[in-house]
């Protein structure tokens, strides 16, 4: 297994990282690499606890065993400065790579985009943090959106994380980021709701062995940097919560002010930190005003100690949200190949705080993460760089934790991590595919299994159009709602049953949707997970055309090509419903469904063959799907070919059938 070969036998000596690796792993890790940031961190020698906050559990992925949110949640395709490009969806990989999806992140997780609710993902995160020398992780919870914010969410993952933390004897703390949640649910910041939410959580879970204690009290990290809560309200809040749930170790993040520091319940204050560089000239790009920050921290420490409070310092490793939102020319703090993080840690040591909290554990959208990743500042060759820096700062060497279970990891990245291929992994990936004359041309991507065959599917594809609503393998039950353009009127849906694919077990299918509308079309479908909660909504499995890849036809129609994971069609009404995603009218002109088990035309392939004459096998003027398979039958990403220069045949009015 490549992962064990890569990382099991390694040790740290000053700034020298020594790896004993096979030759086939040298492209993934730099050998005998001297790292000046790790060397500098090793001289800091913290003797106080170092913790990390912003352990986000909001990541959802339609992968793994029983995913908590079986859709892409927070992971999205690339949005450079907030602008989406449909050629960079999360379902596509970057040029030349079979495993690197396009992500709205500055950085790429070691295990690929993951589902936060998977138990072994949680175990791996906690074990990794523990091995990095972190005293605990502060898990990020947020107010519920289905009521007035009187509960925290997602409690099922929090409950699971506490249990795993208990088993590992590595308790976690709670990070309350309600400061930023007013726009999501304004009532969640009303004092009575804040009290209800916190008191309920601590009363039920506060004594749990998996919850971090300081001086025997459950640790609760509360943000108030923008002073959204007044001092009087904070006193009322903390006093009332403690009457209900018992004493708490309150850590508050905000500027030092007498009226707040007088609150007896506050045990520790975290004041200014190096993320302030984002909000003052030159807005993160450097050079940074370190001396001004040092003065603010000294002032904060003096005031905090005057009131008998503990003093903590927050340290950012870096920051960059430009691949998700952000603004050109500002909002980015360069990592300086780890030295920005080291400078922050070094300043913290000089000021002799009682606690250091580093940030952020796994906020890949803002680029300030410590969790292992292939990409921190570009693909620098060491996925564990920031864990090593953290460990070195407290005089430890870092040992990578065993990977999560294979079935809980993105199928695209398994071959890279484990070095072999088993059933359930993603098959061979090809890109830059096109029809050139009579030939199909493509390029293979590195990082996946060897292709054995290319399957071409045309006549076996499941197809539906408004002109043949009930005569094919995809049928519609409410035929009276159809017109010849397939118009989905406001607040109306088409109800499909799919007799062409009856699923005895869940399958991953792909669907093509042809439309002339800019309005997004939503398809819900029968699946192994019928209902799940996303914030305030109960959802069925669904896909939407918006922000997905498409082909444009000669007459300006779009054909979207989207995976339908976990599908369980039964052939009965309710297999699929189609509607407008925003309630406006739109047109559904064609549906195409591909099943990886379909067999029609098989073309032998190898790494050296990239050009196949396909016109002798099928009609290249009509839609077809090409997909590569490895030797054990794993399919790769299927590609839909729809001749963009061909005008689809005119559709007949389905109501004419009733007139005959």
Can you tell me about this structure?
By secondary structure, the chain is α+β, with helices and mostly antiparallel strands. The protein has a domain of 230 residues. Helix content is 18%, strand content 26%. It has an 8-stranded parallel barrel with strand order 4-8-10-12-13-14-15-18. Strands 23-36-27-33-32 form a 5-stranded antiparallel sheet, with no helix packed on it. A 5-stranded antiparallel sheet has the order 24-26-34-28-31, with no helix packed on it. Helix 3 packs across helix 4 and helix 5 runs parallel beside helix 6. The longest helix has 17 residues. The relative contact order is 0.13.
Quick overview:
The chain has 12 helices and 40 strands.
Number of strands: 40
Which outline best applies? globular
Write out the strand line-up for the largest beta sheet, numbering strands in chain order: 4-8-10-12-13-14-15-18
Largest sheet: 8 strands, parallel, barrel
Distance between the termini: 66 Å
Overall residue-averaged pLDDT value = 88
Strand content: 25-35%
Alpha carbon gyration radius: 27 Å
Low-confidence stretches: 1-32, 647-660
SS field, number of helical segments: 12
- Percent of residues in helices: 10-25%
Structural class: alpha+beta
């Amino acid at each position: 297994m490549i992962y064990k070969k890569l990382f099991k036998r390694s040790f740290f000596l000053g700034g020298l990282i020594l790896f004993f690796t096979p030759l086939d792993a040298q492209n993934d890790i730099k050998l005998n690499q001297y790292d000046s940031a790790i060397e500098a961190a090793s001289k800091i020698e913290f003797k106080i606890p170092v913790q990390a906050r912003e352990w986000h559990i909001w990541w959802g992925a339609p992968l793994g065993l029983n995913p908590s949110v079986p859709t892409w949640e927070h992971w999205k395709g690339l949005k450079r400065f907030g602008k989406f490009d449909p050629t960079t969806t999360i379902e596509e990989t970057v040029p030349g790579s079979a495993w690197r999806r396009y992500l709205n992140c500055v950085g790429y997780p070691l295990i690929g985009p993951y589902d936060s609710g998977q138990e072994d993902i949680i175990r791996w995160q906690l074990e990794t943090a523990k091995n990095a020398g972190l005293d605990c992780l502060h898990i990020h919870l947020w107010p519920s959106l289905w009521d007035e914010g009187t509960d925290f969410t997602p409690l099922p993952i929090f409950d699971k994380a506490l249990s795993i933390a208990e088993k590992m004897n590595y308790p976690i703390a709670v990070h309350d980021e309600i400061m930023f949640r007013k726009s999501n649910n304004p009532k969640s910041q009303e004092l009575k709701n804040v009290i209800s939410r916190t008191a309920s959580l601590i009363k039920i879970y506060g004594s749990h062995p998996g919850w971090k204690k300081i001086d025997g009290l459950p640790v609760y990290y509360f943000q108030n940097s923008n002073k959204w809560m007044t001092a009087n309200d904070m006193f009322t809040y903390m006093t009332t919560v403690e009457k209900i749930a018992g004493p708490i170790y309150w850590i508050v993040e905000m500027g030092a002010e007498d009226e707040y520091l007088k609150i007896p319940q506050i045990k520790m204050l975290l004041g200014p930190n190096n993320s302030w560089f984002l909000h003052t000239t030159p807005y993160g790009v450097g050079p940074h005003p370190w001396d001004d920050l040092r003065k603010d921290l000294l002032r904060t420490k003096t005031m905090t100690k005057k009131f008998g409070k503990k003093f903590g310092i927050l340290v950012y490793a870096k920051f960059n949200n430009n691949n998700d939102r952000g603004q050109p020319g500002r909002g980015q703090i360069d990592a300086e190949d780890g030295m920005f993080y080291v400078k922050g840690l070094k300043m913290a040591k000089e000021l002799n705080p009682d606690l250091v909290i580093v940030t952020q554990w796994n906020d890949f959208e803002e680029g300030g993460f410590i969790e292992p990743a292939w990409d921190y500042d570009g693909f620098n060759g060491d996925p564990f760089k920031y864990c090593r820096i953290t460990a070195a700062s407290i005089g430890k060497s870092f040992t990578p934790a065993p990977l999560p279970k294979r079935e809980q990891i993105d199928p695209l990245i398994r071959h890279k991590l484990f070095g072999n291929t088993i059933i359930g992994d993603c098959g061979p990936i090809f890109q830059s595919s096109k029809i050139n004359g009579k030939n199909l041309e493509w390029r293979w991507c590195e990082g996946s299994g060897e292709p054995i065959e290319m399957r071409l599917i045309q006549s076996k594809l499941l197809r539906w159009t408004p002109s043949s609503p009930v005569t094919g393998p995809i049928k519609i039950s409410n035929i009276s709602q159809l017109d010849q353009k397939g118009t989905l009127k406001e607040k109306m849906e088409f109800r499909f049953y799919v007799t062409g694919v009856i699923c005895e077990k869940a399958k991953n299918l792909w669907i093509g949707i042809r439309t002339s509308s800019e309005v997004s079309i939503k398809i819900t479908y029968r699946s192994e997970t019928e209902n799940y909660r996303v914030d305030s909504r109960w959802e069925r499995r669904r896909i939407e055309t918006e922000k997905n890849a498409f082909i444009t036809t000669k007459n300006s129609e779009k054909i979207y090509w989207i995976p339908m994971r976990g599908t369980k069609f039964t052939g009965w009404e309710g297999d699929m419903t189609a509607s407008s995603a925003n309630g406006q009218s739109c047109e559904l002109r064609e549906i195409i469904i591909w099943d990886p088990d379909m067999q029609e035309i098989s073309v032998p392939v190898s790494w050296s063959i990239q050009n196949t004459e396909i016109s002798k096998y099928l009609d290249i003027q009509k839609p077809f799907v090409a997909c590569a398979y490895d030797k054990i039958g794993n399919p790769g990403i299927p590609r839909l070919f729809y001749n963009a220069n061909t005008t689809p045949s005119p559709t007949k009015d389905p109501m004419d059938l009733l007139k005959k």
